[in-house]
């Protein structure tokens, strides 16, 4: 029996009989010990602690310092989900080894290194992944803790898109053991389809090549979800990535050329708050807010404190950006594109015009909408507002996303409005937004 020490948490690895088929499985168990029993601790060989700054790695919910937060523990217990000591059908790597790998990552990243947190994430995604035929795109899995949880949860096909070469050997080794259930690609999902000329080198990649290599064909926009993205937004470019995704969604390019792609992504609590702000909230209701609410069903699956995730921050902290908003958690948010987003009037061909229209309207949320309409087509603003049943003194920040869609469609049908004021700005605006990613 092997015994591993990591701070105050100890594991045993032993062989048990599988109840389903009678085969032998190697499983990892938590060996509960009294952390105050100095005689027991002194009897174990000491190891140098990794310099990676982690919170106390313990799933005991009574502790004030812990790696898996009390939120995850209490949710599982309250809802009587499968127990926290659930068997891992796939062996986990040595925690010290994956900690060292995480520390060596070149860029600021956050990692799920605790299997209990990984299991909770899988529970939030779906109660039984084996009943879902969608392909899972896992973004930057790193050491693969969440990868194993997805596979143990019944996922039929997982595509791990990892941009850091150091994590590829272990993931590829796991891939070879699973006979097609896992596919590993050296690619960063958030760097698909980079803007610019010249050869595209990993971790950047064209979505067309990725889909061709994986044998995935496009489906109708109204078809069932065939791809579910699971991952964590890159912290430094979080907002730019959200902009890049919404441009791609409205124009049905990049990953959205395959149809509706469901995104289950961790984002900062700050960005989630902005994304769900209501019309009339003149401080946080923005163009990105209206566009995502118009395009997607937004569902909060789980909130987890920053301290539950490992980070390779060189300054030893969690690298959390200061904000006037509450920003104590990472939020697991599901973004599901709406089947009825596109209409005979709003199409992928003209949707970039709608995007820019919203950006111009909501740059100054205390401005009157009629003034913006008059700047586009003098003498026609009041007429259009009456047609939509909107008051003439309504502010741009008080207009709901659906009302902006109706406004755009009314302008498309109107003989008074010309789109020439937008055409020259659309591509330049998109390029300036995504070029910083």
Automatic annotation (TrEMBL):
Cellular component annotations (GO), alphabetically ordered: mitochondrial matrix
Domain Ribosomal RNA adenine methylase transferase N-terminal: start-end pairs: 117-314
GO molecular function: mitochondrial transcription factor activity; RNA binding; rRNA (adenine-N6,N6-)-dimethyltransferase activity
UniProt: S-adenosyl-L-methionine binding residues: 112, 162, 188
GO biological process annotation, one example: transcription initiation at mitochondrial promoter
Subcellular location: Mitochondrion
EC number: 2.1.1.-
Gene3D superfamilies linked: Vaccinia Virus protein VP39 (3.40.50.150)
A Pfam family assignment: RrnaAD
Keyword field: Methyltransferase, Mitochondrion, RNA-binding, rRNA processing, S-adenosyl-L-methionine, Transcription, Transcription regulation, Transferase, Transit peptide
Major subcellular location class: mitochondrion
Lineage top rank: taxon: Eukaryota
PROSITE patterns: SAM_RNA_A_N6_MT
Family: Belongs to the class I-like SAM-binding methyltransferase superfamily. rRNA adenine N(6)-methyltransferase family.
Protein name listed in UniProt: rRNA adenine N(6)-methyltransferase
UniProt organism field: Chiloscyllium punctatum
Organism lineage string: Eukaryota, Metazoa, Chordata, Craniata, Vertebrata
